[in-house]
Structures are given as structure tokens and as C-alpha cells.
Design brief:
Layout lengths: L1 E6 L4 E6 L10 E10 L2 H7 L13 E2 L3 E9 L11 E4 L2 E2 L7 H4 L12 E3 L3 E2 L6 E5 L3 E4 L10 H18 L14 E5 L3 H12 L3 E6 L6 H8 L3 E4 L5 H8 L4 E4 L4 H8 L7 E4 L13 H10 L3 E4 L5 H17 L1 H6 L1 E6 L3 H6 L5 E5 L2
Parallel strand pairs: 8-9, 12-13, 12-15, 13-14, 15-16, 16-17, 18-19
Antiparallel strand pairs: 1-2, 1-4, 3-5, 3-10, 3-19, 5-6, 6-11, 7-8
The structure holds beta-D-glucopyranose and zinc ion.
Beta-D-glucopyranose binds next to loops.
């Protein structure tokens, strides 16, 4: 079968031939990959800044956002059957007994760092024709999501952020949890993760603002405005303006991976606010921020900063539910996130290309 692989030592990215995986245990499932998404992480891996091949392999098959169709199941599989549509989680547990999170199925909180991530770190990914994995890592998707279910993995970034925000909100005394002052949310960045996060916030009835450096007539802004989020240009309005324009900023969902604008926005976070970081900046020169101001605000305004990486199975399940709900409320906006579809033969060019919102490799 064909697969798109990166060879870090020889700095090559190319289509290769791989043996088809086979079911080796009773709880394993074989999927035919239908769609595989391309994201910033794939671009970093194919420019050799990130990514690790499996032990003893010179190459890594990339791809960690995938929709597949179940074509075979082991004798002990209970939750999936031939013909089902399904998405795959990304992270697999580390082997250490002492790692509580991994032993309890929450490898997104792994404490040893020896987890693997399919298509990213130590395990082959999904930009290929067939994949086998244990059923516990595979989540069934209703047939009506066929066209857009490949968006579930990037949506899980927002789902895990929402899980964290729910917990963090519990620190507020009873009647304050649902105070109207806690309903202004800002999404920083308008890539797929930011836009899907905005959909989740709108759907959860937040007053949702998209803070983005692009122009009002950009496709991203049009999509997010169409679902009821309000666009404020970061090119025209510095963070201090933003706070004046919208009032108490109770939640920020950061989805840019750019430290400067993120910390500038953090410095105008509102009273009792929560700031969630999801972007991973590259290693660059240190930048200047007003740390005194930020620290003062953190203390005097009871603020919380939270980082989140990867997502557990529950976030995928919640992502499936939410995508069903988004498709009922704003189907055109969801569909508009997918701006290009390419066959596996063109995957190399597609991964190396820039532009659009979300590019998808249509494998089958
Ligand atoms: C993936 C996550 C992963 C992270 C870091 C992201 O692109 O969506 O699952 O944990 O990269 O490798
Ligand atoms: Zn990704």
C-alpha cells in the first residue's frame, strides 16, 4: 500500500510502498482510510523541525487526522463492525507502570514523555491506505458526518480545552459560575483549530469574538461571522482596545502558536478569567513582555493560565457529538473549512503547499 513518509536523516519526503498492516490481536480493528487531514504539525515534520520515526525505522509515515471505514475486526471487538465509519485518536500510552495517566487511559497527561503519537512521534500515521489499531483508540462516527468527520481531530483540541475550562470554572463560588460576566470568550487565531473552537463556543452560547490579524473579507472571517462570532481585527485594534470593546474577557482560546500576541492578549484578560494556550511556538529568540503587569493581573484578578496538548478518547466522543450539532446549526460553515481535497498521489505537494484553511487527502 502507498504511504506518505518523511526520512529525517536524508531530509526527504516521498510516497513509499509499505506492507498492509494485519489484525494481530482480538481487540484490533482494520480501517481503510478515507480522508486524512493536513495540519501545521505535518508541515513542521516535513520541514524536519519535529517528528520522530518509530524505533529502527528510517522513516515516519505522517498523518494524525483521519477518517476511516472499518473493513475487518478481531474476534473480541465489541464496539465496531464492518462498514462503520470511525476516527482514530493520536496518542498511545508509555510503557511505564509508574505512569498513572497512561495506565488509566489518559496518555494526553503522560508524565514520562515516553508516549508515542501516530504520525508524529515514534509510530506511523494515517496518510496511507490501511491502518490497524486497538478498538480503544478508535471512535465510531455516524454516517451523516462522512464529508466532514476528518475535522474531528482538530476539533478535539477545543474539546480538551473545554474540559479544562469546565474544571477551572469550578473554582468560582456557586452563583458566580454562570454569571453573565463570565460569558465573553475570545478566540485568538483563525486557523482550523481556532475556527472549530469558535464554533464550539458559539454553540455553547458564549459571546464569541474572533481576534485575528487577517482582513474582514478573508474567507476565515466570513465563515466565523456567518455562525455568529464577531470579528475584531488584531491588525487594527491592539489588545487594550479589544478589552474596551467587549468588556470583561472571561475566556481566551489561543490558537496561533505566536507568543507575542498571546501574552499581549493575556495582559488584558478579565477578572476571574481563564486563558487556554493550545499553540506550540517554534524555538526562536526571546521576546519582551510586561511580566509585572501580567503577574499583577493574575493575582489581583484571580486569573488562571492553562496549557493543553493532545486529547483523550472522551474529547473525541464529545467532538463527534458537537460536529453533529454544528452540522445541524451551520453546515455550510463547517463544509467551508475544507478548502482543498487531493488524492494520496498528490499528498507530498499538498503537505508542502501553503494556503487555504484545511487541506484533505482523499485516500479512498
Ligand atoms: C496533534 C496532537 C499532538 C500535538 C503534539 C498536534 O498537531 O493534534 O495530537 O499531541 O500535535 O505532537
Ligand atoms: Zn494536527
Amino acid at each position: 500500500m502507498k504511504a506518505l513518509a518523511v526520512f529525517p536523516s536524508s531530509r526527504e519526503v516521498r510516497l513509499i510502498d509499505q506492507p498492509e498492516p494485519v489484525i494481530a490481536g482480538p481487540t484490533e480493528v482494520k480501517l481503510r482510510i478515507l480522508d486524512a487531514g493536513i495540519c501545521g504539525t505535518d508541515r513542521e515534520i516535513t520541514s524536519f523541525q519535529y517528528g520522530t520515526p518509530p524505533v529502527n525505522s528510517p522513516h515516519l509515515v505522517i498523518g494524525h487526522e483521519a477518517l476511516g471505514e472499518v473493513i475487518d475486526v478481531g474476534s473480541g471487538v465489541t464496539g465496531l463492525a464492518r462498514g462503520d465509519l470511525a476516527v482514530l485518536t493520536v496518542r498511545r500510552p508509555c510503557p511505564h507502570d509508574l505512569c498513572g495517566p497512561c495506565r488509566k487511559g489518559r496518555q494526553d497527561f503522560c508524565i514520562t514523555g515516553d508516549f508515542t503519537e501516530r504520525g508524529i512521534k515514534g509510530a506511523h500515521g494515517y496518510m496511507t491506505e490501511f491502518v490497524v489499531d486497538d478498538e480503544r483508540y478508535i471512535v465510531k462516527v455516524p454516517k451523516e458526518l462522512r464529508e466532514v468527520a476528518v475535522l474531528i481531530e482538530p476539533l478535539t483540541v477545543g474539546e480538551k480545552a473545554a474540559e479544562q475550562a469546565r474544571v477551572l470554572k469550578q473554582r468560582l463560588p456557586g452563583h458566580l459560575k454562570d454569571d453573565p460576566s463570565q460569558l465573553n470568550a475570545v478566540v485568538l487565531g483563525a486557523g482550523p483549530i481556532g475556527m472549530l473552537g469558535a464554533m464550539k463556543l458559539v454553540d455553547a452560547k458564549f459571546n464569541t469574538y474572533l481576534y485575528y490579524r487577517g482582513k474582514a473579507d478573508s474567507p476565515n472571517v466570513k465563515i466565523v461571522s456567518a455562525i455568529g462570532a464577531r470579528f475584531i481585527s488584531s491588525a487594527e485594534h491592539p489588545p487594550a482596545d479589544l478589552a474596551k470593546m467587549i468588556g470583561n474577557i472571561s475566556l481566551v482560546y489561543e490558537a496561533t502558536g505566536v507568543a507575542k500576541i498571546s501574552f499581549d492578549l493575556l495582559s488584558v484578560l478579565g477578572v476571574n478569567g481563564i486563558f487556554i494556550f493550545t499553540g506550540v511556538p517554534g524555538v526562536r529568540e526571546p521576546i519582551e513582555i510586561d511580566a509585572e503587569l501580567i503577574m499583577r493581573n493574575l493575582v489581583l484578578n484571580n486569573q488562571v493560565i492553562c496549557g493543553t496538548v493532545n486529547a483523550g478518547r472522551a474529547s473525541f466522543e464529545e467532538g463527534v457529538q458537537d460536529l453533529v450539532s454544528f452540522m445541524l446549526r451551520f453546515p455550510a460553515a463547517v463544509r467551508a473549512l475544507i478548502t482543498a481535497r487531493m488524492p494520496l498521489d498528490g499528498a507530498r505537494d499538498a503537505v508542502l503547499a501553503k494556503g487555504g484553511i484545511k487541506s484533505i487527502i482523499t485516500v479512498a
